[in-house]
Amino acid sequence: MEGVDYLADERKKTEFDVEEMKIVWAGSRHTFEVSDRMAKLVANDPVFRKDDRVMLARKDLFKNTLRKATYAWKRINELRLSEEEASKLRSFVDEPAFTDLHWGMFVPAIKGQGTDEQQKKWLPLAYKMQIIGCYAQTELGHGSNVQGLETTATFDPQTDEFVIHSPTLTSSKWWPGGLGKVSTHGVVYARLILDGQEHGIHGFIVQLRSLEDHRPLPGITVADIGMKFGSGAYNTMDNGLLRFDHVRIPRDQMLMRVSQVTRDGKIVQSDVPRQLVYGTMVYVRQTIVQDASIALSRAVCIATRYSAVRRQFGSSNGGPETQVIDYKTQQSRLFPLLASAYAFRFVGEWLKWLYTDVTQRLQANDFSTLPEAHACTAGLKSLTTSVTADGIEESRKLCGGHGYLASSGLPELFAVYVPACTYEGDNTVLMLQVARFLMKTVSQLGSGKPPVGTISYMGRIEQLMQCRCAVKKAGDWLNPNAVLEAFEARAARMSVSCAQKLSKFSNPEEGFAELSADLVEAAVAHCQLIVVSKFFEKLQQDIPGKGVKRQLEVLCGVYSLHLLHKHQGDFLATSYITPKQASLANDQLRELYSQVRPNAIALVDAFNYTDHYLGSILGCYDGNVYPKLYEAAWRDPLNDSVIPDGYEQYIRPLLKQQLRVAKL
Ligand SMILES: CCCCCCC/C=C/C(=O)SCCNC(=O)CCNC(=O)[C@H](O)C(C)(C)COP(=O)(O)OP(=O)(O)OC[C@H]1O[C@@H](n2cnc3c(N)ncnc32)[C@H](O)[C@@H]1OP(=O)(O)O
Ligand SMILES: Cc1cc2nc3c(=O)[nH]c(=O)nc-3n(C[C@H](O)[C@H](O)[C@H](O)COP(=O)(O)OP(=O)(O)OC[C@H]3O[C@@H](n4cnc5c(N)ncnc54)[C@H](O)[C@@H]3O)c2cc1C
Fold first, then answer.
1. Where is the Acyl-CoA oxidase C-terminal domain (predicted)?
2. Among 66, 112, 373, 519, which lies 20 to 30 A Cα-Cα from 195?
């Protein structure tokens, strides 16, 4: 029935002010208002319809994406939207497109690695989309190992040009989004060669296609790399391949903020550390952490609403069956994901602050916080994307059979999201970077330089190696200090244990390789500590609205205690807690689940997602799932006719043949 809210009873149970929670989730009233306006603008415009996406063949799908992306750009200009509004609008269109890479990597690469002069020349063109750019780093043979890239940029002093060349098949650029069919330019990463000598990897702005007729320029071979995982999904993106045959570009198209090449072919290093060549990846990793909370909250919103609608077993005296959300097993799978979505939101907010802070420091030639920023962005990108990808798949299973339908929205959400575990750095490779940072920190303890920021707890290493958990009853696990100390002691002890094992190897690199699985576990423990501590810091803020802070305290408890329960092996093996204390944590966790239960629907309503953005029948706001599923089935092209195409050719002869066999 139109207009009936099938989740109304659930909404009546709410114990907090949902409108205020929407502000907390958005980050500020202003951000909430912008988001809300842009989401509605997209939802109400039929051009942005997306429910037919999974049915489209690749060429139609891609053309459809071009149409939407260019229409979005037209609307952005017509409505004179600010940068913030435009970026929100693009995200609510909810379709991976070349524009993601243009705005998300090409422009930031020029901003971060270009000199003032280079920015003045290229950014206005990019801002007006008179050129469209991609980020061409990965090659067929190397992605993780950036120093292993093979594309060369050889300086020719005769002509004052670089010659960009792909010397081998494996040096072909492979994967860059937007490259396959759209980009006119790319920031291309290549080995700099001056007078026969190599000088490491640098970025170069290279024009790839003609601005007149879009044909590849001489010496350039470019194409799409082909279909990817899932239907619809990331296939809206033209990930590309690219080869250079001695392509010449002017010297001033090397991005020269970090190092400059002079007219006579000499390299001049500025004060800026060489790792800034990797700066765009640091920037994007922090945006990926913010996006993780969005993807996870979408999946959780769908699974939570559907779990309240779905009933299975437990009817007594002809009464209604049990809502599946009331099963403790369903709660123990769903509520930690709900809590994780909130936790990632807050750690993403903090990481954005950290990134802004490090950027300001870099501008003032203070490079001291760069290693921590690298470790935090790498580690949190790895942690949050892994949990989110697994969480989307778990949400699908939480929806039973109907979760497997494309119309649940979950299969496509998973297929679009899961490469986040690989792009911008494979998650294991990134955790190993965190581990390196931790091992360096441990080795420097006692050197007189106290660790600061996210590793300041290491400054209390002696206390953290000896302390024992003081919890005596389940309720003691609600004390933030008890939880924080548990996570600090676990992380510190795992790092120290790795460092001790490492010290037994005469060759540290060999030791690092041998112990890498343990090192990743220590890095994960450290990153989980960051998320837990940032959630607690959030709770220190003034949070208005009836019951809002209370709900966040409950979610923070769920987040930290479910981790403690899941990783109790770590906490027990490092001797910080006893088996009895681990069991008390689990008792408290169950109690917290029952506090989440009446508020579950309101907690997902606070994400403020439109039905268009969710793209899920199971997650629709009014909970009117069954008629919508039934109607959607009839819209499938296979149901256009009662007798399927192919009946005469295949089914009829088959049945006839069986008849003949039966007669024999
Ligand atoms: C909004 C946009 C939409 C998103 C769409 C996403 C589209 C996807 C795009 C992409 O995937 S682009 C390609 C991304 N590629 C990667 O992420 C590659 C991953 N690999 C690396 O980042 C690096 O190669 C490495 C794994 C960090 C190793 O690099 P390298 O071998 O050069 O370094 P090390 O010898 O290990 O370390 C040296 C030193 O440098 C420090 N460091 C490393 N990276 C950074 C960094 N980014 N920033 C600051 N510092 C860094 C490292 O910690 C070492 O420090 P010390 O130990 O010497 O102090
Ligand atoms: C959808 C998508 C979009 C992308 N977009 C872009 C783009 O726009 N621009 C661009 O330049 N690139 C892009 N990429 C490429 C992406 O950045 C790389 O695929 C990524 O960095 C991983 O590198 P790889 O493919 O070389 O993986 P590999 O490093 O080959 O990983 C294979 C396996 O080896 C393991 N491994 C590798 N090294 C180590 C190690 N040192 N220790 C332990 N284990 C290790 C990994 O954990 C993994 O299990 C994109 C990729 C995808 C999937």
1. 479-656
2. 112
The per-residue pLDDT for range 178-219, each reduced to its tens digit, is 999 999 999 999 999 999 999 999 999 999 999 999 999 999
Domain containing residue 255: CATH number: 2.40.110.10
Is 88 among the domain residues? no
Whether 411 lines ligand 2, by a CB cut-off of 6 Å, is no
The two three-digit tokens of residue 525, written as one number: 């423990």
Side chain identity, residue 648: E
Residue among 170, 181, 423, 434 to mutate when testing ligand 2 (max atoms within 8 A of CB): 423
Q: Which domain holds residue 505?
A: 440-605
Q: What's the CATH code of the domain at 563? A: 1.20.140.10
The answer to whether position 659 is within a domain reads: no
Range with top average pLDDT, 44-58, 269-283, 362-376, 515-529 = 515-529
**Cβ–ligand 2 contact at 225 (below 6 Å):** no
pLDDT(521) > 80:
yes
Q: In sequence order, what are the beta bridge partners of 136? A: 188
Q: What is the pLDDT of residues 291-300, one digit of tens each?
A: 999 999 999 9
pLDDT tens for residues 322-358? 999 999 999 999 999 999 999 999 999 999 999 999 9
Specify whether 150 is catalytic. Answer: no
Count of C-beta atoms within a 10 Å radius of residue 611: 14
Single out the residue in 270, 302, 320 at which a domain terminates.
270
Total-model pTM: 0.97
Between 365-369, 650-654, 660-664, the lowest mean confidence (pLDDT) is in: 660-664
Query: What torsion do the CA atoms of 192, 197, 198, 202 make, to the nearest 10 degrees?
Result: -20
What total of structural domains would you count in the chain?
2
369 assigned ligand-binding residue: no
Identity (one letter) of the amino acid at 510?
E
302: which 2 tokens?
A: 């769908």
Catalytic residue among 20, 95, 424, 485: 424
Cα-to-centroid distance, 112 and ligand 2 (Å): 22
Task: Answer yes or no: is 471 within a domain.
Answer: yes
